[in-house]
Design brief:
Elements (H helix, E strand, L loop, with lengths): L1 E5 L11 H15 L3 E7 L2 H6 L1 E12 L2 E10 L6 E6 L1 H4 L17 H17 L10 E5 H4 L1 H9 L5 E6 L7 E3 L19 E2 L2 E3 H8 L2 E4 L2 H6 L10 H7 L3 E3 L27 H14 L8 E6 L8 H13 L2 E7 L3 H13 L4 E5 L3 H10 L2 E4 L9 H7 L3 E5 L2 H6 L7 E3 L4 H15 L2 H12 L6 H18 L3
Parallel strand pairs: 1-2, 1-6, 2-5, 6-7, 7-11, 11-12, 13-14, 13-16, 14-15, 16-17, 17-18
Antiparallel strand pairs: 3-4, 4-5, 8-10, 9-10
Helix pairs in contact: 1-18, 4-6, 6-7, 10-13, 11-12, 11-16
Length: about 475
């Protein structure tokens, strides 16, 4: 089975969230099970600098507003997986995130930048970009790569099947309808039956309408997005796809996230040697300037600071929880008001609250290893990876019962769940964790049960291989 994964980011080259971790780990797990895997990425500066042995496959020339476009073939660092890179300096070689300027504004030409990514994927599937390697399946990740599904369906030049994964339906890739001509597609797709969405163009809709199979990153989220509450206006489109929509829970890279071999943490440990985790806890308190209180419940947050992540709920519950003996260690960036509120909380509770504005991978490992609990109080959460990192390190998750959080954490067994998106409900869940930790034997049992969970990509990869075969069957003989 030859599978092309098209995405905007991949760890360790470019990462803004969990998408990059999935695109790094899932293809590798598929390759380990015998699939012939290649990636397709935009030629962002970190990608161009990070891939190895890049050689030109084809000089495409001028398209999508760029005078010079080339398709390169290289290798990923560490995994050595083959990776195609769309080298279009005018569109991709610029400072900022893959999607926004340094000032946080959406790039004005994002339509061209990500339409090009999908267009190249379609040409690889058609065999005219690299005739030496023809994929059986194109797996497009989130709206950034979704146009691959529309281009392939429109031109019908490839026998390859398409699988589209929704990592977060809230980010849809919406553009003005008057930019339609830039896509080079038939005008019949400008209708609600095509890419039109409330007077705009929706790249997300391109994946939802035209992929042979659609997945989300957890079974519960697959059900949620078919409802008005979580469907972001696309629930009708999703319901219309019926059985073509399914959920496959993400795994994590259990080599990178392994407390028994993690070089970033103060002391390595495992489920049978939890003394090392206690050392990590003390080291983290010292590093962050938190009071060295063994009786405190050390709670960590590693997240984008947004209302979606429920961090306003945490802020509202924080003062009361601090008085009960909870310490907070937060790392993230996001909405300015939330950033400022966490900085104020640190000033108001010295030695009890620490805020690190930004993202640091090694620090994230230390936060997970050293904390007692990790909070993910999201209003909605397609899958979530940080709660699984917590399980792996015996750091018990406190999560809202939604999406992948509900699928990965068992209340009272491997973590603590709450239902209502309110500060009071979150506070009560943290208080349950605080009470549980006062019984060392029971707490150790919870930690060991959490660490015993199977969190690798082995089973999800097998599910995807079965899904690819089904998608191939829907488009014709393999």
């Amino acid at each position: 089975m030859r599978v092309l994964h098209a995405a905007a980011e991949v760890f360790p080259l470019v990462k803004t969230g969990g998408l990059a971790d999935v695109v790094a780990a899932l293809p590798l797990a598929l390759a380990e099970q015998g699939a012939d895997i290649r990636l397709l990425l935009p030629g962002l500066p970190a990608v161009m600098d990070g891939v190895q042995g890049a050689k030109t496959v084809i000089d495409i020339g001028s398209c999508f507003g760029a005078m010079r476009v080339r398709l390169l073939l290289a290798r990923m660092p560490r995994t050595k997986l083959p990776v195609y890179v769309v080298d279009a300096p005018y569109l991709y070689r610029r400072e900022g995130s893959p999607y926004q300027t340094v000032a946080g504004q959406e790039w004005g030409d994002n339509l061209q930048r990500f339409a090009l990514l999908g267009w190249v994927a379609a040409h690889l599937a058609a065999g005219d970009a690299d005739p030496r390697w023809l994929p059986d399946v194109v797996h497009a990740h989130d709206w950034h790569a979704a146009m691959a599904c529309a281009y392939m369906a429109e031109h019908a030049a490839s026998p390859a099947a398409t699988v589209f994964t929704v990592h977060n339906l809230a980010f849809q890739g919406l553009f003005p309808m008057h930019d339609w001509a830039l896509l080079g597609m038939g005008s019949h797709l400008m209708s609600p039956a095509g890419l039109e969405f409330h007077g705009q163009l929706s790249f997300m809709k391109a994946g939802l309408k035209f992929a042979d199979r659609i997945t989300t990153v957890s079974p519960t989220y697959a059900r949620e997005i078919a409802t008005t509450e979580f469907g972001c206006g696309l629930d009708g489109v999703i319901r219309d796809r019926g059985a073509a929509v399914s959920g496959v829970i993400n795994g994590i890279d259990t080599e990178i996230w392994n407390p028994a071999s993690d070089s970033a943490i103060a002391n390595r440990f495992d489920a049978e040697r939890l003394a090392g985790k206690a050392e990590c806890r003390r080291a983290l308190q010292t590093e962050l300037g938190l009071v060295r209180e063994d009786s405190a419940l050390l709670l960590t947050v590693i997240s984008r600071l947004t209302a979606q992540k429920g961090l306003d709920l945490l802020l509202a519950a924080l003062p009361d929880l601090v008085t009960q003996g909870v310490q907070f260690a937060v790392q993230g960036t996001g909405e300015p008001a939330l950033e400022a509120a966490f900085r104020m909380a640190q000033q108001a509770h010295p030695g009890k609250v620490h805020m690190h504005l930004g993202y640091d991978e090694a620090r994230a490992h230390r936060l997970v290893a050293g904390a007692d609990v990790i909070a993910v109080p999201s209003r909605f959460e397609p899958c979530g990876l940080t709660q699984m990192y917590g399980l792996r390190y015996g750091t018990l998750p406190v999560v809202r019962r939604t999406g992948g959080l509900a699928d990965t954490v068992a209340d009272g067994s491997t973590g603590f769940l709450f239902d209502e998106a309110t500060p009071a409900a979150l506070r009560r869940a943290v208080e349950r964790a605080l009470l549980a930790r006062r019984d060392p034997a029971a707490w150790t049992a919870l930690q060991r049960r959490a660490m015993a969970q199977e969190l690798s990509w082995k089973e999800p990869a097998q599910q995807y291989l079965r899904l690819y075969a089904e998608a191939r069957g829907a488009t014709g003989p393999a």
